Amino acid sequence: xxxxxxxxxxxxxxxxxxxxxxxxxxxxxxxxxxxxxxxxxxxxxxxxxxxxxxxxxxxxxxxxxxxxxxxxxxxxxxxxxxxxxxxxxxxxxxxxxxxxxxxxxxxxxxxxxxxxxxxxxxxxxxxxxxxxxxxxxxxxxxxxxxxxxxxxxxxxxxxxxxxxxxxxxxxxxxxxxxxxxxxxxxxxxxxxxxxxxxxxxxxxxxxxxxxxxxxxxxxxxxxxxxxxxxxxxxxxxxxxxxxxxxxxxxxxxxxxxxxxx
Length: 261
What we know:
The chain has six helices and eleven strands. The protein is an alpha+beta fold and 261 residues long. Helix 5 (94-105) crosses helix 6 (233-260). The longest helix is centred in the last third of the chain and has 28 residues, at 233-260.
């Protein structure tokens, strides 16, 4: 049976929009590893290009900008797949994307997060405290914002104390696209290990990109840092950032479960 002409025209003028598959974003081999429930991780020293970067122009644009601005000496990357508990091949809805953004804005929920410390071979607290503040200067504590309509960008400031780098101020920038959510953490104070200033002010960018991928969310996390050139220090910092990235991914899963489970 032929479609009426007006229905056929509507299909042409308003084609359905689908999200990319994990295979399209990261290749068949890596997608197979991720579909099995494993993560893919990488730590690189000195000048290095990302190797796990998804095939997405928006994510690539932001990563290229970070590398150009920072010229990092350490790069850590990870890839993960998060299974959405809904219909197969279903794109996330605007309501789901909004809810997920609001959950990731809840930086207070990072307090108490644990990660596995390679140096200590034990679980360790990541952020002892995590509070959203109004401004890096006044540091007045405020509740994380919650939106009823999707914004295109959001900027938050946070005061976060961790057992590795101490009490510091960070800026979080969120960017909302059709199939992608990106948030970038930047240090506004110097990160010190003991008495050693390990990462100078504005010399860290931690990027988390969440891409809608049919019945999954593909999560790409990367940290770029320009660090001190003390022998052994870069390797120690690289391992720390890699372990902490896994902790943040665990936190993301907890937040995403509130939306998709």
